[in-house]
Each structure stands twice: as structure tokens, then as C-alpha cells.
Amino acid sequence: MTVRSEVVARLTGRAVSGERPLSGALAEVTLDDGRVVVVKRSDAPGAAQAEAAGLRWLAAAGSVRVPAVHGQEEGWLVVDRVPHGRPDPGAAVRFGRDLATLHAAGAPAFGAAPPDGPVDAYIGPAPMRNEPGTDWPRWYAGQRVLPYLRRAVDEGTLRSGEAVVVERLCERLPELAGPAEPPARVHGDLWSGNVLWAADGNVRLIDPAAHGGHRETDLAMLRLFGCSCLEQVLEGYREVAPLADGWAERVGVHQLFPLLVHAVLFGRGYAEQALAVARSAVAG
């Protein structure tokens, strides 16, 4: 029996009848009762704990569906497999309604980690520190945008002269951020690859970077990488929770953090996108 199968057997309490690697870090494992689970390996300290805590916190809202967590230990995470379906307008509307309900479940503060989640968490493979704050513009600038801006400059992905426009946006965030909103319970990394259209006609969310954040950030992430049926998702969302005036003009502000993360991870192309949205927001 492989180490992976031993972990799955220990965390599910079931014998393993087979496994199928999906990538170096991911595999599907079949249990002796026929169920299939996904096992994920991460060497980043606290990553499995953060993901498990985030999934449970999202599930606790009783709205958006997520894979059930069977357990995590020492870099291993075991969750239910999601049988894949196809994007569907009806499912998108339901997902939008559920997402609005998830956000309304709230969080103790901006940057608040899920219960039992570590302060030093991740967005994808990138570090993301969950340091609580009470003022969203100040917290977003200090805890999300500026740390990755500095890293991009230090690593040569952005030139220091170019960084000025992002720093100017951060200074102007109190006026650019729109009406004050309470901390929302956000997925935190809601790009289209983390939205699974399941075979049962409902959406499942995976790989969260869950924390207390601004609800418009999740919506901006859906737009950033082209979520299927996005207009239907937004239709369902607004049925439950109308968005504040001007939200569409603030999309770039909320995309700035993930774009800077991608700039650090994947290079100059994303840095140029980050600069473009910063220039547009400041000019507007």
C-alpha cells in the first residue's frame, strides 16, 4: 500500500481498493465501499490545514456547496470527489444566490482566518497572511496589495518607477472603494478553475483561500479569468443581495491583488495587467 493510500485509509476509516494519480500532488482514490475521494499533497507548511479549515468554514454557512472534508494531516488533505457536469444557466443562477448567502454569513474582521485556520495561509501556492483589520481600504492595501507589489519589484517583475501608480491607487483607496461594507465570508480565490460544475446540476467550490474580505473581490475574481454563465451568476446574486452603486467600476481595484500574485508567480504579462487596472482606476 502506498503512503497516499495509508493516509486515505486512516482519515476515512475505510480500506482502499485502488488509486489513480491525476498529477504529482493530486490523486483519486477508490474506497472499498465504492466511493471515490481526492487526496492532495502539499509541502507548504500549513497549506493542508488552511484549505481544510477554509472548506469547513464555507460549508458552515449552509449555502455554497463544497466537497466534504474527510481530514488532513502533515501536508495531506482528503476530500470527496466531485463528478463533473457542464456549465448550466440554471445552476449559475442558483450558485449566484448561494454565493450571496455565503458572503452574508460574514466574518469577525477583514483578514480573519477561518476557525482552526492558520494566520499564514495561501492563495494557490502563494503565501497569504490573514492579519485582521477593521477598515477595508487600509487592510487591503497593507495586507494584500503592497506586500506583493514590493515582492514584484524586489524580484524584477515590476520596475520601481512603475510601482508608483499602484502606490497611488492604495493612497486613494478610501475614495475608490465605494460604500463601506461589513466583512464578508469569501472564498478568496474564486477564479473559474475553482468553480466546478457538478453532475448533479449544482456548483461546487474547491481550493479556497477563505478569509474575511470584501464580497466584491470574489465577484471580480469570477470575471478575471472568464467564469462560464457569469451574467446568470450575477443575476442570482443580485436577487439575494443587491450590489452597491458603482461596483462594476471597482472590479479592477479588486482584481489588483490576484494580478500581482500572478505577476510574482508567472511573470511580466500579469504585471502589465496589474499596471493597466491601476492606471484605469486612478484615472477614473
Chain-wise SSE layout:
Elements: H1 3-12, E1 16-21, E2 26-31, E3 36-41, H2 47-60, E4 69-73, E5 76-80, H3 89-104, E6 120-123, E7 126-129, H4 136-154, H5 160-176, E8 184-186, E9 195-197, E10 203-205, E11 211-213, H6 215-224, H7 230-240, H8 251-266, H9 268-283
Antiparallel strand pairs: 1-2, 2-3, 3-5, 4-5, 6-7, 8-11, 9-10
Task: Please characterize this protein's 3D structure.
Strand 4 and strand 5 (76-80) form a beta hairpin. This protein is 45% helix and 17% strand. With 284 residues, it is α+β, with helices and mostly antiparallel strands. The longest helix has 19 residues, at 136-154. The protein has 9 helices and 11 strands. The chain has a 5-stranded antiparallel β-sheet with strand order 1-2-3-5-4, sandwiched between helices. It has a two-stranded antiparallel sheet with strand order 6-7. The protein has helices at 3-12, 47-60, 89-104, 136-154, 160-176, 215-224, 230-240, 251-266, 268-283; strands at 16-21, 26-31, 36-41, 69-73, 76-80, 120-123, 126-129, 184-186, 195-197, 203-205, 211-213.
Assess the beta-strand content as a share of residues: 15-25%
Secondary-structure-based class equals alpha+beta
Overall geometry comes to globular
**Mean pLDDT across residues:** 96
Low-confidence stretches: none
The number of E-state strands comes to 11
